[in-house]
Design goal:
7 strands, 185 residues, 24% helix, alpha+beta, four-stranded antiparallel β-sheet
Length: 185
């Protein structure tokens, strides 16, 4: 019994010593650090627009398919996909384009599918036209993500196109689309 009493007293002494040695007072406040300068605001982004550029100088035959893994089922269902071709780097033709457009003496039809952007070329008679290497220079594909106001609506791709038209942007004009979204040419 005496051993238990001694253990109680020793434990009590340690508890008192420990609680007295701990202090809850805050120390003095240190000096203030140097003031930092605020950064400048960046330009507004276009996170809802993705641009893909392809070297088309090697395109040959009556059709070409370009792999674009970003063309997902959601993109096909909801977003607008615009395509442009150039043969000189200065003038961009909106595709699909009819036969004998300003720049080309052949038509270009477009098919988009899961992961692919496909081009089919035709002549005046509606037959296949064969593109030769070097006849085209570049292909640009622009994917414009539908916004929360258009997503899930029937034909939301058309809603995106309609919004551009209402903003006065001609989607057949590559430079107008680039200017509207702040995309470099």
């Amino acid at each position: 019994m005496k051993t238990i009493s001694k253990i109680k007293y020793v434990a009590l002494a340690f508890l008192i010593a420990f609680s007295v040695s701990c202090s809850t007072e805050d120390g003095a406040v240190g000096p203030a650090g140097p003031a930092g300068a605020d950064g400048t605001d960046g330009t507004d982004g276009n996170a809802n627009v993705r641009t893909f550029t392809f070297d088309a100088s090697g395109f040959t035959g009556s059709n070409n398919a370009v792999s674009i893994p970003e063309i997902t089922q959601s993109v096909l269902d909801n977003d607008a996909i615009l395509g442009y071709l150039t043969d000189d780097g200065a003038y961009w033709v909106s595709i699909p384009s009819p036969f004998d457009s300003y720049q080309f003496d052949f038509s270009v039809q477009v098919t988009t599918s899961l992961g692919y952007f496909e081009l089919d070329y035709g002549n005046a008679a509606g037959n296949a036209y064969t593109v030769t290497a070097g006849e085209l220079q570049d292909l640009k594909v622009i994917i414009i993500e539908s916004t929360s106001t258009t997503a899930g609506k029937l034909n939301s791709q058309n809603q995106v196109i309609n919004e551009l038209n209402q903003a006065g942007v001609n989607i057949k004009d590559y430079y107008a689309v680039c200017d509207y979204y702040g995309i470099p040419y």
